[in-house]
């Protein structure tokens, strides 16, 4: 059982258009406004709802129908200090692929929307995360120019019925829709559970750094005028 998100997060649900299909758009909340988003994404293959508060406490309620994936998303919320309420109903009886990839799309879209015009963020974040015998490096630029370098080779990929190669599908979908340049490198480690968990925790920690408001940063952290 995960921790329940705050009541503020729950209240927000009632004020939004839950049930309507959300298009890929970015809103630009006023400076000082709460950085949050609700994304509902429904296709023939999956039905997903994501509620995200960037400056949260790491509270989560996650249900995807894939226990190991839930475990990863819960760790992601906890270590990023994001409040995350995520439910996904997908054709998991066919395969986990659609659900994992579509959760990446919906979660990435929620990050992009919550971020608004990205004013005041640190923009860059990186983390080297050890997990038992494994070590993973994650480096992120919140550039709005999506790019992924994913160097994770595993001899054993199965974590019960979860194929660790699906994590790359998640990462690519997430980075594409969140507008991230994200580099993930497995330095070493063989346990697929440890490596994948290090990836999710490393992404969370790096994102937390990159997305935090830097009090000395006035406006956008770029000389171009836009991110
Ligand atoms: Mn674990």
Q: Quick one: how many beta strands?
A: 10
CATH topology: Ribosomal Protein S5, domain 2
Q: What number of structural domains do the residues give?
A: 1
Strand content: 25-35%
Approximate helicity band:
25-40%
Per CATH, the architecture is 2-Layer Sandwich
C-alpha geometry: globular
Within CATH, the superfamily carries the name Imidazole glycerol phosphate dehydratase, domain 1
Order of helices and strands: HEEEHEHEEEEEHEH
Spatial separation of the terminal alpha carbons: 38 Å
Please tell me how large the radius of gyration is: 17 Å
Which whole number gives the mean pLDDT?
89
Q: How would you sum up the major sheet?
A: 4 strands, mixed
Q: Which parts are unreliable, with pLDDT below 50 for 5 consecutive residues or more? A: 10-29
CATH class call: Alpha Beta
Q: What structural class do the secondary elements suggest?
A: alpha+beta
How many individual helices?
5
Task: Produce the secondary structure layout.
Blueprint: H1 7-15, E1 36-42, E2 46-53, E3 60-63, H2 67-80, E4 83-90, H3 97-115, E5 124-131, E6 134-141, E7 147-151, E8 158-159, E9 162-163, H4 166-178, E10 181-188, H5 192-211
Parallel strand pairs: 3-4, 7-10
Antiparallel strand pairs: 1-2, 2-4, 5-6, 6-10, 8-9
Helix pairs in contact: 2-5, 3-4
Index terms:
globular; four-stranded mixed β-sheet; alpha+beta; binds manganese (II) ion
Please outline what is shown here.
33% of the residues lie in helices and 26% in strands. It has 227 residues and is an alpha+beta fold. It has one domain: Imidazole glycerol phosphate dehydratase, domain 1 (Ribosomal Protein S5, domain 2, 2-Layer Sandwich), CATH 3.30.230.40.
């Amino acid at each position: 059982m995960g921790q329940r998100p705050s009541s503020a997060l729950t209240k927000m649900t009632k004020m939004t258009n839950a049930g309507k299909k959300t298009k890929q758009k970015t809103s630009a909340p006023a400076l000082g406004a709460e950085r949050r988003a609700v994304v509902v994404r429904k296709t023939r293959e999956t039905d997903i709802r994501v509620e995200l508060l960037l400056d949260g406490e790491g509270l989560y309620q996650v249900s995807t129908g894939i226990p190991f994936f839930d475990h990863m998303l819960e760790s992601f919320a906890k270590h990023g200090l994001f409040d995350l309420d995520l439910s996904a109903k997908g054709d998991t009886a066919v395969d986990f692929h659609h659900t994992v990839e579509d959760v990446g799309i919906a979660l990435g879209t929620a990050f992009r929307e919550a971020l608004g015009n990205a004013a005041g963020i640190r923009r860059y974040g990186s983390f080297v995360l050890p997990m038992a015998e494994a070590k993973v490096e994650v480096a992120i630029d919140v550039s709005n120019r999506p790019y992924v370098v994913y160097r994770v080779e595993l001899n054993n990929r199965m974590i019960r019925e979860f194929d660790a190669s699906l994590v790359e599908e998640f990462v690519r979908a997430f980075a594409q829709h969140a507008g991230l340049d994200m580099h993930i490198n497995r330095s070493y480690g063989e346990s697929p559970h440890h490596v994948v968990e290090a990836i999710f925790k490393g992404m969370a920690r790096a994102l937390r750094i990159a997305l935090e408001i830097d009090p000395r940063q006035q406006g956008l952290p770029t000389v171009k005028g836009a991110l």
